[in-house]
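Replying to the earlier thread about multi-chain prediction with a worked example.

Input:
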Amino acid sequence: MSILTIAEAASQIAARKLSPVELAEAQLERIRRLDPAIDSFLLVTGERALADARAAEARQMAGTLRGKLDGIPIAHKDIYGTAGIRTTAHSKLLEHNVPTRDAHTVKKWADAGTVMLGKLATHEFAFGGPSFDLPWPPARNPWNREHFTAGSSSGTGAAIAAGLILGGTGSDTGGSIRGPAALCGIAGIKPTYGLSSRTGILPLAFTLDHAGPMAWTAEDCALLLQGMAGHDPEDPASVDRPVADFTAELGKVVKGLRIGVVRHFYETDHRASDATRAGIEGALDFFRREGAEVRDITLSPAADYHAVGYLLMVTEAYALHAPWLRERFTDYGELFRDRVALAATVSGPDIVQAMRRRRVLCLEMAAAMENLDILVSASQAGEAPRIADVPKWANMEKPSFTMPFNVTGFPAISICTGYGEGGLPVAVQLAGKPFGEPTLFRAAHAYEAAMPWRKRRPSMCG
Amino acid sequence: MSTSEIDKDELGRLLARSGHRLTPTQIEAILPGAAIFRRMVERVNAPLPREAEPALVFDVEQGR
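Result:
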């Protein structure tokens, strides 16, 4: 069976040309055959998957399918709570943790009829990685297993690129959806803050955490986000407003879109690789050709956004982990414990200053976007580095391209723009106005449909 | 020492103040990150207008 997108599989299931059971069995076989090389799964839930698939197939036969996610094989990042199924955060500290209830978003996807194949590798507590001192190895990049996936939704990125799942959950506190999407050559969206519930997902930093989907294409991300978004009174950040139709603008032309390019982020603040910059220029050329209005804009240096985000991220994480860090320091992996321990060096006024500057930056970005629909910048600086060569402090040394949109909460998607000299994917990041996801999907889908990049899979896929 | 520098003794004191009983080797392992982090803290502390309010209750639509 060839690797399908969610849109393709949904169409075939609706037409009764594809059996959800046969699809699930094929995916489980792919996992058995390919996952030992990339370690994207922490746990394969084969029996659960087949039970889900049989239920979907019964609905298919009865003509009562629940929608486009019914019968679609997915898996969850292992910080998403799953009732009765181990949820570890890839950490020794939660090695035997079995939640009693599903995360809100896990339940929503299950109610939509998805077929759960298992739980996916992450960086420890969605922050410490790539680590080799945890109970499970880090996920490997399917394009070259000696290379990094980025994190922290590392297993989700790897499993989708390898065709082991058609979609999966990620979380994004400073770029943890968009980073793996970029380095694994897939699509991943960090939705607007508050659009999707975090209830039941192990937190890293409350004011920066976002739950979102990852998939092979932007269109598939739109379908998955549709099944994930919505108000949840249990999540204090959850917004109570009607959920947009995320597929509404798919197929619409990009003519007339107003695009701002934050060129200084990836040319001077943190210079991206030649291939990454060429990929971004290629995307901008496409948008210009199609009639979009493209112009450069200037924001505060990426380092300003990064400093605010990083300080708040580690201090919020420290507030959660301090008791265990004091008593069980060495039960954490070195990367997580040493990064989060930095919070012990800041003062109360430092944190308030970060919160004050955060509002300044939010206002700046809102003002910049007043007459724009989309911001464009890099997603990652280049192709994936070798996993053994990722410096311990890599996520601090240079400013992140993704953190600005965690600081402001604006939605942002990473999509593939081709391949670099090493044969590994490069990417562009598109950001939108709050709740502007339909426009982001419109632009991302138009670009993907016009380019050849979605036709190529890692060679390990055969 | 410039304000952005931090040495092993100071880092050890700050960690101890927060209740961490770490070995000298463990403190040394954190030190390079602490220096980078201190530069971030300095950046965050650049002067702001006195009236700049914190994003105490985070609202993605604030300012709109």
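Chain A touches chain B through 49 residues (CB under 8 Å).

Feel free to reuse this layout for your own posts.
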